[in-house]
Amino acid sequence: QVQLVESGGGLVQAGGSLRLSCAASGRTFAGYPMGWFRQAPGNEREFVAAISGSGGNTYYQDSVKGRFTISRDNAKNTVYLQMSSLKPEDTAVYYCAATGRTGWSRAFTREYEYDYWGQGTQVTVSS
Asked: Do residues 14 and 123 make contact, with C-beta atoms less than 8 angstroms apart?
């Protein structure tokens, strides 16, 4: 059974940093793109960042460019999201996602492109 388990969320003041982790089990995702999405109260879930299977390519939502960094450790079957200069509008439940599709002709930014999802971790940024 495939599982994605996020960790690292919490409460942080504006301007602070958090590092989210997503550990996969049940199959290897080395070589497969992975991504992070988030959902704020009253909003739809939105794309945040994606990374190619090798880790050599990344793509970000405009609002997080320069502040967030996605990375992965394929040996550990884990993807990370380093978040810096956090803003209150970054408050949301953050979800890790993995896809069974290969390739990187373009970044996978749509929910339907991902096959596996974590349960989410809450990030709250206070002003």
From this structure: no
